[in-house]
Amino acid sequence: MSDYKWCHGPVCHEQPTQSRVRGSGDNKVLRTIKIKVGRYGNYDRGENNVSMWDYFCNQSCLMEYIRTHLTSIIAIAPRREALETRIKVEKEKYESHRYQWQGDDANGPTRVPYQATRTRIIAVDND
Ligand SMILES: [Zn+2]
After folding, report:
1. Which of 25, 35, 36, 110 is deepest in the core (most CB within 10 A)?
2. Beta carbons of 35 and 8 less than 8 angstroms apart
3. CA 12 to CA 108: how far, in whole Å?
């Protein structure tokens, strides 16, 4: 059983594409895109088993909806303070190299070793 929804993009019906043209003769219109629910299968389905692509025909309509309703959307779950995730930071030295040009050296650049440092962010049990 197929279920359909209309794209929620506020100006979806104003986009001049062939796929939106309906009617005949002098009675033609651009119509909001009709979306087949589940058209991308389980792609991008959250824990609530809902996909934004069941409600928006494309990213442009999604962003226009967010732009139009941003104040209301933010009011649903406002962020009043910063969140934090506990981590451990480890610095680690390792051998690396860079290439150095020697002026007019016809043999190309010289490989020069050096001691490099990399920083690793490690997850910590946050319970
Ligand atoms: Zn749309």
Report:
1. 35
2. no
3. 56
